[in-house]
Amino acid sequence: MPLDQKPVPAQPSAVSGPASGPDAEAPDAAATGAAAAAEPWSIRQAGPWTHRDLAANGARFHIAELGSGPLVLLVHGWPEYWWAWRHQLTALAEAGYRAVALDLRGIGGSDRTPRGYDPGNLALDITGVIRSLGERRAHLVGHASGGTLAWVAAVMRPSVIQSLTVVSAAHPRDLRRALLTDRHQFAAFEHVLGFQRPWIPERRLVADDAELVGRYLTSWTGPNGLDEAAVHAYRQAIQIPSTAHCSIEPYRWLLRSLARPDGIQFARRMKKPITAPTLHVQGAADPVLLSRTALGGGEYVAAPYRWRLMPEVGHFPHEEAPEEFTAELLDWVGLHKE
């Protein structure tokens, strides 16, 4: 049975609705609230998209898919899952793209495997999903930890990446340098430091209906913030069994590998120039990844590169300013169609 069918005791979702499918209408949170109250919360929120599972890189991955045309693969960050891209799924499909939002390994409706949370393997998950979708290339969009993996995928499998859009994520070498030399960036990663202890972080993340995750989400945004339905959904998703553990394993690798041979080898590998046209989006008010840490990613891109700093936007540009962000994304992928 898929893991997303066995969540913690169900709470009604403000965005759940009738069965999903390609002909269903997008749900309105206010209009569907009463109907949703009678249904258990599910990772597979209803909408115009289609949910399905596919195999790649030795695991099973859940995706939400909408539209037809050139593939745009959307990869979430922490503590989100595929639903973070609900605004972009519909906009991309309307613009003539095949939009696919992926649940990363260990999160949402995808498999929770005991191993495989290093950046190299997670990047191969992404490129494997592109192949499993029957596509030769894709426009890859990644946010936060998903953005880090987008950088890595573009280095490891350059022929698969048609264009790259990185959101709230520094190039891995810049992030490594900042964590080693910039005390302000190190302090901004306080939550990542807390993740290094065994078992205690998992328990704290799910305690009191994932209250800590809610606090992270609200404190990491700019003036616009996230809507209550989004915060509720992410708090529910982290409570699916094993998700808290699996979702923070990449952060454990990040810090523990700084002085290990595998981490040093990874940093050296990431020197390779990226050949995909790259859009780099950063919220000016992001308290997690400082703008000065993200700035400079173009040093590693041997292709067209655009830096976009969004004022008064925090860690989640795609949700805090969805119209502005989506317009930027559509312009970028439109410039780099085959």
Quick recap:
It is built from 14 helices and eight strands. The chain is an alpha/beta fold.
The percent of residues in helical segments reads 40-55%
Amino- and carboxy-terminal Cα gap = 40 Å
Pairing-aware structural class of the strands and helices? alpha/beta
- The main sheet orders its strands as 1-2-4-3-5-6-7-8
What shape does the CA trace take? globular
- Residue-averaged pLDDT: 90
Backbone CA Rg: 18 Å
Number of strands: 8
Query: How do the SSEs run, as a string of H and E?
Result: HEEEHEHEHEHHHHHHHEHEHH
For the largest beta-sheet, the strand count, sense and barrel status come to: 8 strands, mixed
- The number of helical elements comes to 14
Characteristic terms for this protein:
338 residues, 8 strands, alpha/beta
Question: What do you see in this structure?
Answer:
With 338 residues, the chain is α/β, with parallel strands linked by helices. The chain contains 14 helices and eight strands. Helix 4 (145-156) links the parallel strand 5 and strand 6. Helix 2 (86-94) packs across helix 14 (322-335), helix 3 crosses helix 4 (145-156) and helix 8 runs antiparallel to helix 9 (228-238). The radius of gyration is 18 Å and the shape is globular. The relative contact order is 0.14.
